[in-house]
Hints:
By secondary structure, the protein is an all-alpha fold. The protein has eight helices and no strands.
Amino acid sequence: MNLREVIQPAPDWLDKPSPRRVAFVALIACTGLAFYGFTVGFWRDPVMGLYVAIKLPVLIALTLACNGLLNGLLGILLGTGLGFRQSLLALLTSFALAALILGSLAPITFFLAWNAPSPESPGASAAHSAYLVTHTALIGFAGITANLHLHRLLAVKAPTAMAATATLLAWLGGNAFLGAQFSWILRPFFGTPRLAVQFLRDDPFDGTFHEAVWKALDQLSGGFGLPALLLLMILLTAPILRTIHKNHQTTPRP
């Protein structure tokens, strides 16, 4: 078993969810996320970087644990032919692919943190908003790209193109919603300049991740948060639909 098998999984990759395969994929996911996580927290403080290096793999584990059963049921109900074990390996593989993308970006994000205005500077608030939006976009890009790559396997396994696409969109929506909210509960990840460095906040259930991102986007866009959000959604939706269509065109039906 090697890294190439994870990056370019064979059509029968999901048919053999052995403990060794699951452990190997989980190790890749944890390693990539830990490297990237350190660069996320480093801007606020190196200690925060260590905290995030621990919390980011935990975040993915919680998301996978809570969504594993649901996505297994969806796989059966939508007719993909995937059982619970196959669905779990599929989701874990997508997280590992996203971790590889983020891990490869870690040197860039580290220098981004190194050269950003310090948390004690007058422009720290604007820098924090830009930092939050940038990393949210990077994590979203990595997650969507990994799932679209996984869609090739779904296209092979599912009896119809509709079943494969519906499963992918359901998985994307569930992982995005749960992952975002878990990240809020496990905050801080970026480290608000005016708040102390902590492993967890004292009020983990106060507010939501989506509210925080909205405020940051609205601040950066000068009060035009809604048009900026709509533009971002259009820019994301178009390549997703195009890639799904291309996958169906190039993937042989079972």
